[in-house]
């Protein structure tokens, strides 16, 4: 009976973690959309929702610590719980980056863009896909899915490099573009960091399944 209860608690933990992940995905998409559409209302909603993400992180952390304190988990159980604790930290930081992007939306809402925003939304789409795939790998306990997801980080990095070089060139040609260009560079950097956090989740999934910690960000 104790083991059955423990397993049901693990299922509940997984469900809450996926709910948090879905919210963070929504936050990232909304933040970038608020920027591309200059939607200050949406940006403020993203900023307001960050408190909800923080609360979910605290609730899941509490559940993890309760499982560790009240049960006698096996080594595999300990890896599942410790992985959940690591994942929620990465998800919370992703939500922070979505908030950062939304705040830039508010700073730029009255400005014409110095260039069409094409690569930034594509970069965000890839990063959001990485988050979803990372969580799927966690649910499926799949190292193959985790490794496949991690490889997408190269595509994100390539887009980031292209955005960086384009914006630097624009700012060099037009000093009046420096302020907005700098903010857009920050946006691209925040999205790149989201992809890095998704990669972290993939690494933790691999650890959870194999017991080996590998750095895939090199």
Automatic annotation (TrEMBL):
Its main location: cytoplasm. One of its GO terms (biological process) is phosphate ion transport. InterPro entries: PhoU, PhoU-like_sf, PhoU_dom. Keywords: Cytoplasm, Phosphate transport, Transport. PANTHER family: PHOSPHATE-SPECIFIC TRANSPORT SYSTEM ACCESSORY PROTEIN PHOU. Homodimer. This is Phosphate-specific transport system accessory protein PhoU. It comes from Sulfobacillus acidophilus.
């Amino acid at each position: 009976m104790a083991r059955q209860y423990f397993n049901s608690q693990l299922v509940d933990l997984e469900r809450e973690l996926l709910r948090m992940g879905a919210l963070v995905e929504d936050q990232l998409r909304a933040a970038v959309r608020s920027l591309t559409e200059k939607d200050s209302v949406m940006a403020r909603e993203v900023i307001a929702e960050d408190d909800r993400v923080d609360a979910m992180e605290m609730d899941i952390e509490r559940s993890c610590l309760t499982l560790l304190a009240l049960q006698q988990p096996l080594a595999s159980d300990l890896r599942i719980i410790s992985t959940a604790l690591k994942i929620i930290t990465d998800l919370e930081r992703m939500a922070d980056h979505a908030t950062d992007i939304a705040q830039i939306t508010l700073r730029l809402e009255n400005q014409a863009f110095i260039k069409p925003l094409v690569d930034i939304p594509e970069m965000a789409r890839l990063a959001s896909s990485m988050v979803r795939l990372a969580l799927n790998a966690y649910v499926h306990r799949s190292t193959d899915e985790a490794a496949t997801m991690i490889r997408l980080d190269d595509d994100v990095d390539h887009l980031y490099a292209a955005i960086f070089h384009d914006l630097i060139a624009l700012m060099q040609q037009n000093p009046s573009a420096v302020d907005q260009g700098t903010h857009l560079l920050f946006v691209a950097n925040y999205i790149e960091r989201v992809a890095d956090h998704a990669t972290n989740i993939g690494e933790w999934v691999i650890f959870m399944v194999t017991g080996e910690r590998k750095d895939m960000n090199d």
